[in-house]
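Project outcomes to date are best conveyed with an example. Our students and postdoctoral researchers have been running inverse folding experiments weekly, and each run begins with a structure described purely in tokens. The record below, which covers 194 residues, was selected by the lab manager from last quarter's runs and is presented without edits.
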């Protein structure tokens, strides 16, 4: 765990997930699916029991290429989460997929950047990870801008991939950043760390 001071002076704790976070993790997922239109899940999709959620948290803990970080506010509430999910197939072990959600009151304050920096530092230090991928909706301009500012570049797009409850569609943009020198193709940056 480490103290994290945001741009506005707020101090949070950034730490790895623990099994005991199951209830708080479910609360965070419910709040972000309810309030963040750019997440692929809806609140009714968050239907795991606390025991199932604890198993998911154990899975991240036990995966040497996986990482699940939580931002914890004073008082104990989880206000953001970031996961790096790996693939067990040997031909795909050189990359991890990043997913992140932050409750609205804590967005735009530097928390997302800090969590991504921690995740990219982890990936860069890992001997097998060369690339970090993520998906973003084009309508989420703030997140897209953050990813670009951190070296992520578009790799592809799935058109009309997400159907919103109101019947409108969103594309899904795939982005990646490389974390090992020499691994990046032309036009891509390599994460340099802080």
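After processing, the design step wrote out the following sequence:
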């Amino acid at each position: 765990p480490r103290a994290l001071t945001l741009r506005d002076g707020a101090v949070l704790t950034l730490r790895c997930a623990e099994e005991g976070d199951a209830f708080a993790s479910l609360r965070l997922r419910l709040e972000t699916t309810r309030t963040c239109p750019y997440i692929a899940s809806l609140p009714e999709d968050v239907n795991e029991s606390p025991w199932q959620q604890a198993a998911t948290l154990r899975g991240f803990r036990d995966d040497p290429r996986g990482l699940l970080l939580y931002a914890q506010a004073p008082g104990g509430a989880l206000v953001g989460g970031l996961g790096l999910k790996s693939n067990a197939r040997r031909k795909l072990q050189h990359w991890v997929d990043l997913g992140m959600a932050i409750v609205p009151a804590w967005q735009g304050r530097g928390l997302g950047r800090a969590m991504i920096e921690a995740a990219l530092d982890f990936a860069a230090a890992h001997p097998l990870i060369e690339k970090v991928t993520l998906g973003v909706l084009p309508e989420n301009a703030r997140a897209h801008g953050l990813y670009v500012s951190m070296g992520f570049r578009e790799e592809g797009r799935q058109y009309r991939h997400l159907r919103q409850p109101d019947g409108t569609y969103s594309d899904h943009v795939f982005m990646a950043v490389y974390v090992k020198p020499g691994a990046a193709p032309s036009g891509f940056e390599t994460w340099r760390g802080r």
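DSSP finds four helices and eight strands in the chain. The longest strand covers residues 153-163. The training component of this project remains on track.
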